[in-house]
Structure formats: structure tokens, C-alpha cells
Automatic annotation (TrEMBL):
<keyword id="KW-0811">Translocation</keyword>
<dbReference type="GO" id="GO:0046872">
    <property type="term" value="F:metal ion binding"/>
</dbReference>
<dbReference type="GO" id="GO:0005743">
    <property type="term" value="C:mitochondrial inner membrane"/>
</dbReference>
<keyword id="KW-0653">Protein transport</keyword>
<keyword id="KW-0496">Mitochondrion</keyword>
<protein>
    <recommendedName>
        <fullName>Mitochondrial import inner membrane translocase subunit</fullName>
    </recommendedName>
</protein>
<feature type="domain" description="Tim10-like">
    <location>
        <begin position="15"/>
        <end position="78"/>
    </location>
</feature>
<dbReference type="InterPro" id="IPR035427">
    <property type="entry name" value="Tim10-like_dom_sf"/>
</dbReference>
<keyword id="KW-0143">Chaperone</keyword>
<comment type="function">
    <text>Mitochondrial intermembrane chaperone that participates in the import and insertion of some multi-pass transmembrane proteins into the mitochondrial inner membrane. Also required for the transfer of beta-barrel precursors from the TOM complex to the sorting and assembly machinery (SAM complex) of the outer membrane. Acts as a chaperone-like protein that protects the hydrophobic precursors from aggregation and guide them through the mitochondrial intermembrane space.</text>
</comment>
<dbReference type="InterPro" id="IPR004217">
    <property type="entry name" value="Tim10-like"/>
</dbReference>
<comment type="similarity">
    <text>Belongs to the small Tim family.</text>
</comment>
<keyword id="KW-0862">Zinc</keyword>
<dbReference type="Pfam" id="PF02953">
    <property type="entry name" value="zf-Tim10_DDP"/>
</dbReference>
<keyword id="KW-0479">Metal-binding</keyword>
<keyword id="KW-1015">Disulfide bond</keyword>
<keyword id="KW-0472">Membrane</keyword>
């Protein structure tokens, strides 16, 4: 996106809006990760601590979730680059 058409105040406002959107997206991703891994992995509520089985499950769940998110991001970037290259 070309921001050269905007004045400094408009560019600063757009930057703040984009940063807020990125933070919102990050928090949504993080909340989804926590909810999914907690739901899938935590079963024993008789103790404050996680069992070793629950800890291992949470670790695998988080790793899988983050690897998936990274892969989706890469594919999105590739598709975006292809679209941008096709428009030249």
C-alpha cells in the first residue's frame, strides 16, 4: 500500500490503526491457542499443577498450533507475492 498520498498525521493514524489490528490478531491467536490446548489437554482438576502427561500434551499442542500458524502465514505471503507479481 502506498502511503505517500497521506500527510504525516494521516500516516501516523494509519500506523496506529494497523498496530492495533496486529495486536488484536495476535491476542486472538493466543487466546485460541490457550483455549484449544487447555480443552484438549487438561483433564485433572484435583491439583493446581499439571500432570506430566498434561504438560507434554500442552507442549505438543502449542508446537503444532504455532507450526500450523507459521505455515499458513508462509502460504499467505507466497499467495500475496504471486498476486503482486501478477499485477505488474
Amino acid at each position: 500500500m502506498d502511503f505517500s498520498q497521506f500527510n504525516d498525521a494521516e500516516r501516523n493514524h494509519l500506523q496506529r490503526v494497523m498496530e492495533q489490528k496486529q495486536m488484536k490478531d495476535f491476542l486472538k491467536l493466543y487466546s485460541g491457542l490457550v483455549e484449544r490446548c487447555f480443552t484438549d489437554c487438561v483433564n485433572d482438576f484435583t491439583s493446581k499443577a499439571l500432570t506430566s502427561k498434561e504438560e507434554g500434551c500442552v507442549q505438543k499442542c502449542a508446537d503444532k498450533f504455532l507450526k500450523h500458524s507459521e505455515r499458513v502465514g508462509q502460504r499467505f505471503a507466497e499467495a500475496n507475492a504471486e498476486m503482486m507479481g501478477g499485477n505488474k
